[in-house]
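Q: Sequence in, structure out?
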Amino acid sequence: MRFRRWALNDWNEFLIMARGGTFIHIINGQLMSVLVDDDPASSNNKPGLIGFEIEGAPCKVSIRNVWLKKLS
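A: Exactly. Output:
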């Protein structure tokens, strides 16, 4: 049986953790990617924007229950 990482026509849970130059992406409890950016020129601790982006064919995207938590 093939594991489906996301549910079609249903809600999915995305967890994105960013600390320093490390970014972890989890979808529905399944680790999807880890990115480590160790280039000191690209790191900054300035406030920024958060956005949602979709790529590909025209489709419908719904977003609900967005929580932000500052990691110390």
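The CA atoms of residues 9 and 58 lie 15 Å apart.
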